[in-house]
Write a structure and sequence with these properties.
Layout (H helix, E strand, L loop, with lengths): L3 E6 L1 H9 L3 E4 L3 H11 L4 E7 L7 H8 L6 E5 L9 H13 L7
Length: 106
């Protein structure tokens, strides 16, 4: 049997996963993610990737949903960072990490 890949995430990151060809299910909060997961375990999904922010506080419920099942395998992935650093901040951070000093760029 061929298994499919599903992604449970927020609406901001859903488009990227759709472009990659995954079946994407959007959830606004952890309760919504558990509800989607309950539906997915009844279908032929072998892997379900879940935005880790949507798993916070519902770990016990997820365990109950998956109890006694080998599939799907649920893999959390890091949530997108809300604050992106500028190129200048990125370079300054890399310099500090590698040489141990903060260098102000002009």
């Amino acid at each position: 049997m061929a298994y499919r890949v599903a992604v449970i995430t927020d609406s901001e990151t859903a488009t990227g996963f759709r472009l990659a060809g995954a079946d994407v299910f959007e959830a606004e909060d952890p309760r919504g993610a558990v509800s989607v997961l309950r539906d997915l375990v009844r279908r032929d999904y072998g892997l379900v990737a879940v935005n880790e922010a949507l798993l916070e506080g519902v770990e016990d419920e997820v365990s109950r949903v998956l109890r006694g099942r080998d599939l799907p395998v649920v893999v959390p992935f890091p949530a997108a960072r809300a604050q992106q650093e500028s190129g200048e901040e990125y370079i300054a951070r890399l310099v500090k990490e590698h040489i141990g000093f903060y260098v102000k760029l002009r």
